[in-house]
Amino acid sequence: MPHLDAYGRWVSDDGALYWDGRAWQPMTGITGFPAYYPAPTAPAGPSSVKGPVALGLGIASLVFWLLPALGLPVAIAALVMSWLALGTSGRRLGRWGQVLGAIGLVLSLINFAAGAYMALHSAKG
Description:
Elements lengths: L2 E2 L5 E2 L5 E3 L4 E3 L23 H15 L3 H18 L5 H31 L4
Antiparallel strand pairs: 1-2, 2-3, 3-4
Helix pairs in contact: 1-2, 1-3, 2-3
């Protein structure tokens, strides 16, 4: 929550900005440089490709569920890759791959069961 400083200006919580009546302006010192410098961030670790692969396989499983011979392996691969991605930097994409892969797996199994049922019951005549 903004507060008043010693000069009567409204100052942001982090002390980097003040309100001049029209817009938030950066705090500047005598030199004209900003008085606030953000803390250095840690360098990003190596990015993992497992999350995007799991997401791609999950999306593909939603397309291939119409052909259970393709849908089942793709959905299982999506679930395996998403499980491997959960411990890496791609865990968010891995979670989406897991959800989409599970939906694709369920749809593929339903399609497989419906196809098997129709094949067994249509051979009566």
